[in-house]
Amino acid sequence: MLLEINELAKTYRKGGVRANDGITLSVDAGEVYGLLGHNGAGKTTLVNQVVGLAMPDAGSIQLDGRDLVADPGLARRACSIQPQAQVPIDGLTPRQAIDLVGRLRGERSDVVRRRIRELAAALEIEEWLDTDGARLSGGVKRLVSFAMAAVAPGRLVILDEPTNDVDPVRRRHLWRQVRDLADRGTAVLLVTHNVIEAERSVDRLAILDHGRVVAQGTPAELKASIADELRLDLTLEPGAERPAIPAFALRAIPGGPRLLVTVPVGAASDAAAWATGERRAGRVEEFSLGPASLEDVYVALAAHAEVRPFPAIELEGAMTDVYAA
Length: 325
Known about the structure:
This protein is an alpha/beta fold. It folds into two domains: 3-222, P-loop containing nucleotide triphosphate hydrolases (Rossmann fold, 3-Layer(aba) Sandwich); 225-324, 2-Layer Sandwich (Alpha-Beta Plaits). It is built from eleven helices and 14 strands. Strands 6-7-8-3-9-10 form a six-stranded mixed sheet, sandwiched between helices. Strands 2-1-4-5 form a four-stranded antiparallel sheet, covered by helices on one side. Strands 12-13-11-14 form a four-stranded antiparallel sheet. α3 packs across α4 (109-123) and α3 runs parallel beside α5. The longest helix has 16 residues, at 168-183. 44% of the residues are buried.
């Protein structure tokens, strides 16, 4: 494995918060590995330790068999990162910012120029390449930040919420470029709470909850753990009274004008009949019933959903993001 993390622990002295609690995972070259979790799950703390910005209290981090805890400088040389916060590029154009990072990482100038053209075309940001960064929208800045991480990628590329503020069309372009990085042999560590996008994009993933890995594997392996569940996805009528959650529901999550209800496979006919009745009553505009998804695994394992009373807790904005995607 390219990246190996073993029993990693980190407690912040102020407040005594145990942000990481014995995390063990590995990422191979050519793999997109997802980290999913709610606010405070420990994702960003983990990333900060991998790139040498925070020192763990216990455990080990190895890249190509070399100790990143003992040599944090190696981590910064070998890893490219797109941080969660927007990279400040005011006073620079996207072309200048991407070029600067590429040359700082030691890539030849002709290769950097070619990669800038490739990434700009792939992400559809060519028209803004020579615009001052202060005049760019949040979504374009986010795409530029990704290009800065991808222009001369290290052995490991870390992407922390890479699609925040990005419009749906360019978001798809970005995910194709993430896959392209892996296909070129780079290991990609992807931090996200957009579960549906993660399901489409990752090879394997870990779900974090309160600093611990509660499950990891391929999306198919994790979904197999809830093979006996179905998801009932409802679009609510605007302004209408919200439906009462049926007794057979396992979990229910609201998301603006949507309601997601998880039901047992054995209750499929009851679920369809209930949803049909709610539509006839004018409370539901449309609905679909199908197999449970990775989102349902995420909610079940992290235990952040309530069946009743309505509404349920929102996962780090995940439901809003999922429905808007």
